[in-house]
Amino acid sequence: MKLQRPRGTRDFTPAETEKRRYIENRMRAIAEKWGYVEVKTPTFENSELFTIKSGEAILGELYAFKDKGGREIALRPELTAPVLRMYVNEMSVSPKPIKLYYFENCFRYERPQKGRFREFWQFGVELIGSGRVEAEAEAIALAAAMVSDIGIEADLCIGHLGVVRGVLHDLDSQMQAEAMRLMDKKDLEGLGVLLADDSDVKDRLLALIDADLDEASSIVGETGAIEQLKQMRTLLDHYGVEYKVDFGIARGLDYYTGMVFEMYAAGLGAQNQICGGGTYRLAQLFGGAETPSCGFAIGFDRVLEVCEVEPPNKPTVAVVYLPDVVEDAIRVASRLREGAGVRTTIDISGRKFGQQLKHADAIGADYAVIVGAQEIAAGMVTLRDMRTGEQEMIGLADAVLRIRG
RNA sequence: GCCGGGGUAGGGUAGUUGGUCAUCCUAUGGGACUGUGGAUCCCACGACCCGGGUUCAAAUCUCGGCCCCGGCCCCA
């Protein structure tokens, strides 16, 4: 038996890698157009960074280990905490708001299934240092722009934990947590059982789950959170972003404090969530000043599962030559590469002329640039279109023009 | 961690009531073909997921493990 790759990891073939890189670059281009700058953080962190906000319980889902110096280390399971740690360590005096994006691999020790791997990639954004609704609306609009740019139709749902917690205010914290969990799972029956003794809370919560924004304000009153959501409605209308209000969104995370949102795409089975985010307070947990922030992360692998955008074809040229003119062939290849930036291959296997053409076909070359004694005598090359079979002896500069289309 | 389905050359497969040398397609390398590829033909290459058990004999039956697929739990 040959060596296997670890469970839940993947290899990517050249075609897959090309597509992944292309989609990544499109997302990156949008983030940069919106004025966001890229950051990188370590692949592993002290485990504490992840347990501090989520408790020891999450260690079970981390790739965590002791290093040779006895330090408790964990591979990052997400990037919001590392980026906020970095903000506190390195950027806390940078002018606010700070607009950051990242694209990195993350690791979770979980049972792999469709759209869920032990190593996976996240493209995310953190908008640090503004608690205003304009910031939240921008984060949502940016997420929507990225997803739609790569041709994915997704449903966007926005909720608000402040509103929900307001309703649950009188319950003890354990009850609150359980209620939020059931709500996130859309387990209305379970909620009914849990809140059987608090019928007032139960009625209001169940009403809220189905409520739109205007109904919500009659259930919980004109609170600040409701007012914020109404402002956001106006802003998102200006952005042209369509969404649904869903107070049932709880996001398993404790650190979200206000607005939360999720995006779902069809065709992904049980793991249909492709993006999640919201407003959180983490900086002070990591020893920084209180800094209102919001952000989101897109599940890159899930997005790729349903993304049908294909990278544009980059023309490939094979220099095909007769054995007595290797030097000239190499010179032509160099001029195609360095001079013209064309993707160019040349035989390095000692193949005969006919075999070289055959191989050029096999690797999907778009053109063959043929170099032989006749071409050299004429100071030209023969450009052969591998698809049509048409060929013509022309100058190298003209050949480049045609190759580039 | 739990439930179910699955694992035969690089990819796709036949064979599974145990019994010659494990089938075919494709891909790959070479040749027929010394300045013209895609066709055809020939040759080569290459597999029973791993380990234990039953048996004269295991790809086939059995147990354990690993991995893949779908779902549950979870999803910070």
Q: Looking at CATH, which topology of the largest domain would you report? A: BirA Bifunctional Protein, domain 2
Query: What is the CATH architecture annotation of the largest domain?
Result: 2-Layer Sandwich
Q: What oligomeric assembly is this protein in? A: single chain
- Let me know the number of strands: 16
What percent of residues are in strands?
15-25%
Give average pLDDT, whole number: 92
The span between the termini is 48 Å
- Just give the CATH class of the largest domain: Alpha Beta
Give an overview in words.
This protein is α+β, with helices and mostly antiparallel strands and 405 residues long. The protein has 2 domains: 14-306, BirA Bifunctional Protein, domain 2 (2-Layer Sandwich), CATH 3.30.930; 316-403, Rossmann fold, CATH 3.40.50.800. It is built from 15 helices and 16 strands. The chain has helices spanning 14-33, 48-54, 80-91, 133-149, 161-167, 173-184, 188-194, 199-209, 213-220, 224-239, 300-306, 326-339, 353-362, 373-378, 396-403, and strands at residues 37-38, 44-46, 64-66, 72-75, 98-107, 119-128, 154-160, 244-245, 256-265, 273-280, 293-299, 316-321, 343-346, 367-371, 381-385, 391-394. It has an 8-stranded mixed β-sheet with strand order 1-5-6-11-10-9-7-8, with helices on both faces. A 5-stranded mixed β-sheet has the order 13-12-14-15-16, sandwiched between helices. Strands 2-4-3 form a 3-stranded antiparallel β-sheet, covered by helices on one side. The model has no long low-confidence stretch (mean pLDDT 92). The protein binds one RNA strand of 76 nucleotides through helix 2 and helix 13.
